[in-house]
Amino acid sequence: MLRYVLQRIVATIPVMGVVAVLVFVLLRLSTGDPAVIMAGDAASEAQLEAIRRHMGLDQPIVVQFFIWLGQVATGDFGTSLHYGMPVTQIIGGRVGPSLSLALLTIALSIAVAVPLGALAAWAHGSILDRLVMSFSVLGFSTPIFVTGYVFVFLLAVKAGWFPIQGYRPLANGVGPWLTALVLPTVSLSTIYIALIARITRSSILEVMGEDFIRTARSKGVAEVQVFMRHALRNAAVPITTIIGIGAAFMISGVVVTESVFNIPGLGRLVVEAVLARDYPLIQALILLFSFVYILINLIVDLLYTVFDPRIRY
Predict the structure, then answer these.
(1) Are 52 and 192 found together in one domain?
(2) Structure pTM?
């Protein structure tokens, strides 16, 4: 197992290298001059040339890439063109809100979706099953920003139960922190609850038709034990897969949710960096998100061995 983990970690190096090359080249080919962004439209050509020399933009793109890659290898992602601060410092200050939102969303999605999907499979063909499937279709089809604005209108503007926008750090207390994240978490988790519940239902129904389920029933095992100990456990691998995929793709959902609820996290920082053409910040954020995506896939692979002992690496 340890050897497999080390191999997967080593395999991330060329993947991250390809991501770095693509990000660097695409940003350099996009429109917009970083020197103009820093100096302003009123800057003279001499001032712009001085900024380009200072930033190394007068060098060939290959030279620029290896200079940047050498800085990244030492943990230096450069200085933000928009904020004038080290990129690592900016990202470090925005990790807390995004991490809080992501963890709460994953926890809520799993806690609600898995029992909901299992209940729909247990009551297959009933009204409850149809209601769960209808919710899955509606929840997965509705854009996150629409769900967010509906919750804001109903629960914040009309009812006044939660703040409309903003974020409260955990250091200010669990109550304010949790209250500020309720609406964003529910809005973001809706689509993942719908997806996970649907996959959970279909996976359990597929397992319920297997031979070992019929064997357990023929031995007189109670239906509840057949469902919980045999069906649900053997359906855990595809459920874990879809949870991992949902967690990895949550990055795009965080961008939209933080923009809707004005949360100063990494998602909103991406939007700000793109609008400002802040190359160093965009490059660092994409590398960070790519690493998180790879890490989540590694964790999912390792969880397979927990739910299915037959899987060995």
Answers:
(1) no
(2) 0.80
Which residues touch 285 (CB under 8 Å, ≥6 apart)?
91, 266, 269, 270, 273
The answer to whether the CB of 61 falls within 8 A of the CB of 27 is: no
Rg (CA), the chain: 24
Residues 6 or more apart whose CB falls under 8 angstroms from that of 74 comprise none
Given 24, 40, 73, which residue is the final one in a domain?
73
The CATH number of the domain holding residue 174 is 1.10.3720.10
pLDDT along the chain (313 residues), means of 10: 72 80 76 63 69 70 80 81 84 88 90 89 85 86 84 84 84 85 89 89 83 77 75 80 79 82 86 81 86 82 73 62
Q: How many domains does the chain have?
A: 2
Claim to verify: residue 32 and residue 107 sit in the same structural domain: no
Residues paired with residue 86 on neighbouring β-strands, in sequence order: 79
The rounded distance, in Å, linking the Cα atoms of 67 and 145 is: 39
| Residue 242 Cα to chain centre, angstroms | 13
Q: Which domain holds residue 132?
A: 93-307
